[in-house]
Specification:
By secondary structure, the protein is mostly helical. The protein has helices spanning 2-12, 25-33, 57-75, 81-87, 100-111, 126-158, 169-173, 175-196, 199-221, 224-227, 230-255, 260-287, 290-293, 299-302, 308-316, 320-326, 331-343, 346-366, 374-391; strands spanning 162-163, 166-167.
């Protein structure tokens, strides 16, 4: 399926992407002619000290997240009722999750509203500005569909029975229909991606899908030496967790016609936020409860998946590697590994690693070009606040 996806995508990425919103370039120029220019920058980037106060990230984009959620429910409708029910399982109200991906991407879209004299977006009318925002929301929808597809397929591979506090899709409808539902969502995402007609954005999202598959394969096929390697763990974690949000953040910058330097900062924010998020997830898998996590606790170690806390503990207690080599089908080995973990600084060092990457994410936002736009500055502050919220959560 992934090979087929890549072949189809390669055809899409051959589509010329220079026309703005699908209009011929000369038509866009005529639309620009009589519009009012909007500049979001001046020489006073700091200005209002009140922006240093806590900004609620969700409240800034709540209305748009609601739009994205409705669109996702609409996108999951198929010609066969059983497929509609399965594909929309995680998009139903009440079980749709935190929509963290959408929140990050919509905030990033506003944070990228930076004045560039040479950019066509510097001087456009409301109609084209609204169309740009619609396309950016579409990136959020595509990212959510790819993300949910990866969750569905992960649960099948892991034989999981819960997700987000309810039965996993494979547990409720069986593996066959769950696989088809994941495939359906992936190709709905493909169709939406094609409609953007932007070759660079297509390439970014294709890379993210490839990395998701690569990361899952790395986890499945790892040797003992690889499972005990921090370098291997970091690469796998980037592929499975951080690649999608980092490439989607960069896509927001590309759609806004930002410079390569600004696009790289958007990418770095997403990458480091995604890594920090996963490190906290790895801690919570050990310290959290099934009720708070919405899935079984200790699920990683019981499946033989070695994460940062155990890897750090192994640095202090090398004999832990022998326990890992024996595997964790024997509950006694799980208990032994946890005993070493509690005696070590594994949890603390993993929190420090998460904090380090959260700081790198903040540094990326703080390196963006200066702006005096209140909306842009609020969104940037919200992205900064998210690094704290996501790395101090307990579920």
């Amino acid at each position: 399926m992934t090979y087929l996806f890549s072949r189809v995508i390669s055809r899409i990425s051959g589509t010329p992407g220079k026309a703005l919103f699908g209009y011929p370039q000369q038509h866009c120029q005529s639309l620009f002619f009589s519009t009012t220019c909007h500049s979001s920058t001046d020489s006073n980037p700091k200005g209002d000290a009140s922006l240093q106060e806590k900004v609620d990230p969700y409240s800034l984009v709540a209305d748009e997240i609601s739009l994205v959620s409705k669109r996702l429910r609409s996108s999951s409708v198929a010609k066969v009722p059983e497929l509609t029910s399965a594909a929309g399982y995680f998009f139903k109200e009440g079980v749709e999750g935190k929509r963290t991906c959408s929140m990050v991407l919509l905030l990033m879209a506003t944070a990228m509203d930076i004045h560039r004299p040479e950019s066509p977006f510097n001087c456009i009318g409301d109609a084209l500005r609204n169309e740009l925002r619609r396309r950016q929301r579409l990136i959020a929808e595509i990212t959510e569909m790819i993300h949910v597809t990866s969750l569905i397929h992960d649960d099948i591979l892991d034989d999981a029975d819960t997700r987000r506090g309810i039965g996993s899709l494979n547990f409720v409808v069986g593996n066959k229909l769950a696989v088809l539902a994941g495939d359906f969502l992936l190709f709905r995402a493909l169709g939406a991606l094609a409609s953007l007609k932007n070759t660079e954005v297509v390439s970014l999202l294709v890379t993210a899908v490839e990395n998701l598959v690569t990361g899952e394969t790395m986890q499945m096929a790892a040797t003992i030496e690889q499972r005990c390697s921090m370098e291997y763990y970091m690469q796998k974690t980037y592929n499975k967790t951080a690649s999608l949000i980092s490439n989607s953040c960069k896509a927001m910058a590309i759609l806004s016609d930002q410079t390569p330097a600004v696009a790289k900062l958007a990418f770095e924010y997403g990458k480091n936020l995604g890594l920090a998020y996963q490190f906290i997830d790895d801690i919570l898998d050990i310290t959290g409860t099934s009720a708070s996590l919405g899935k079984g606790s200790l699920s990683d170690i019981r499946q033989g998946i070695i994460t940062a806390p155990i890897l750090f503990a192994m640095e202090e207690f090398p004999q832990l590697q022998a326990v890992i080599e024996q595997g964790f089908k024997n509950p006694a080995n799980v208990d032994t590994a946890l005993e070493y973990l509690w005696k070590s600084h594994g949890i603390q060092r993993t929190r420090e690693l998460a904090a380090k990457h959260a700081s790198l994410a903040v540094a990326a936002i703080n390196s963006l070009p200066e702006t005096s736009s209140i909306d842009v500055r609020k969104s940037r502050q919200a992205l900064v606040n998210l690094t704290q919220i996501l790395t101090t959560r307990n579920k």
